[in-house]
TrEMBL record:
Chain ranges of the Metallo-beta-lactamase domain: 50-281
Gene3D superfamilies: Ribonuclease Z/Hydroxyacylglutathione hydrolase-like (3.60.15.10)
Protein name, UniProt field: Metallo-beta-lactamase domain-containing protein
A GO molecular function held by the record: hydrolase activity
Lineage: Eukaryota, Fungi, Dikarya, Ascomycota, Pezizomycotina
Length: 378
């Protein structure tokens, strides 16, 4: 499926939110490629990454949000036996050092300061440990979430990915994206919900991976800040699990020279030829392969998504957002950005001035580069 290439029109606003990326200390590794994408490329047989959480501060309302919550520290003893059995059967490796609540406290934010926790979806590596937060902290979820996934295990013995205590003693608000709601609009092809009703922070309906999957679009600078246009961070959740499924595109093609080289430190002056990767592209030997290999994502979405076709549609539209130079894409498990980003309590709002977008855009290709290097020594 081809991604759309139209300009993303986002309503103007002078209001922003402060965004910080929390490296939650969660790591989900040894994930087989067929959980993520197809076809397989050398170096991508097994995949892994961090679990990014986002801290959002809205100054006009003095509201603090979290987008996702990572893996809870006691996951091995707390989750359902059938979930743990399934993870063990595919040899997935999971580690976590701290609950997100601990990271907040270390930097002067108390769990009670958090007004809402937005779940991109119900999976164990995103819902964390809400019991560390008071009942005044509500949960925000996407359409159809409560009917499909609550009450969780063990209250529902068949449930796997989420637990009953996640929701007990607190409100869970479901965003319905109702067309008659004045806070609902369309951005690109995604239904959007203007969370603070001022254009600073939008929830996006990005279904496919799960029912009711949510992403978000945070305005990090406004046109009034420097006279230019607004900038945004696209908080992806699990809309994708690899850059391989949404890069390159016609809006952001694979260049003749990539700098920095994917296997070099970010912000270095290293370069490597783009054709090194284009030559390995699935379309390279097809008609018009030279162009397609530089303007079409390397892979399609694969794996146990609840609606794979819907997931691909969401991914295709993500590619359209990702092609804008004023939007930085960060999905939950993007390990290629680990040494590009700055982390909580540092703010990510100046990401564009700091060059995070171009510095991180092609780093996901490092395994391909490494496999090519190893093959040349055989």
């Amino acid at each position: 499926m081809a991604s759309s290439t139209g300009k993303i029109e986002i309503p103007k606003s002078s209001v922003t939110v402060d965004v910080s990326v929390i490296n939650s200390t969660s790591w989900v590794g040894n994930v087989p490629h067929w959980f993520v994408f197809e076809p397989l490329y050398p170096g991508f047989e097994r995949n892994g990454g961090p679990t990014f959480v986002f801290y959002i501060y809205h100054k006009p309302s003095n509201s603090r949000l979290l987008f996702d919550l990572g893996v809870r520290k006691n996951f091995r003893t707390h989750f359902s036996p059938h979930l743990m059995k399934g993870l063990d059967e595919i040899h997935m490796q999971i580690s976590v050092e701290k609950d997100v609540s601990e990271i907040l406290v270390e930097h002067g934010v108390q769990p009670g300061d958090i007004d809402s926790i937005i779940f991109s979806h119900h999976h164990f590596d995103h819902v964390g440990d809400t019991t560390k937060f008071p009942g005044t902290t509500r949960l925000v979820v996407g359409p159809g979430y409560k009917q499909r996934y609550l009450p969780g295990w063990p209250e529902n013995p068949e449930a796997a990915e989420t637990t009953s205590d996640t929701y007990e003693g607190r409100g869970t608000v479901e965003i319905e994206f109702a067309p008659n709601d004045h806070q609902v609009l369309t951005i690109g092809k995604f239904k959007a919900y203007d969370y603070f009703d001022d254009g600073s922070f939008y929830l996006l309906s990005t279904p496919g991976h799960t029912v009711g999957h949510l992403s978000a679009l945070a305005r990090t600078t406004s046109s009034s800040d420097d006279g230019g246009g607004s900038t945004f961070i696209f908080l992806g959740g699990d809309i994708v699990h690899s850059c391989m499924v949404f890069r390159p595109t016609e809006k952001y093609p694979l260049p003749d020279q990539i700098s920095p080289a994917p296997n070099s430190a970010p912000f270095s002056n290293s370069t490597c030829p783009g054709d090194l990767f284009a030559s390995m592209h699935r379309f390279r030997n097809e008609e018009d392969g030279e162009r397609k290999s530089r303007t079409t994502p390397f892979c399609l979405v694969a794996g146990p998504d609840e609606d794979l076709a819907e997931s691909q549609r969401s991914t295709d539209e993500l590619a359209n957002f990702d092609g804008e130079d004023n939007i930085l894409t960060i999905f939950a498990h993007d390990g290629s950005l680990l040494d590009v980003l700055e982390y909580f309590p540092q703010k990510a709002n100046e990401w564009k001035n700091k060059g995070w977008g171009p510095q991180g855009h092609w780093r996901f290709l490092e395994p391909l580069m490494q496999s090519k290097k190893e093959a040349s020594h055989l």
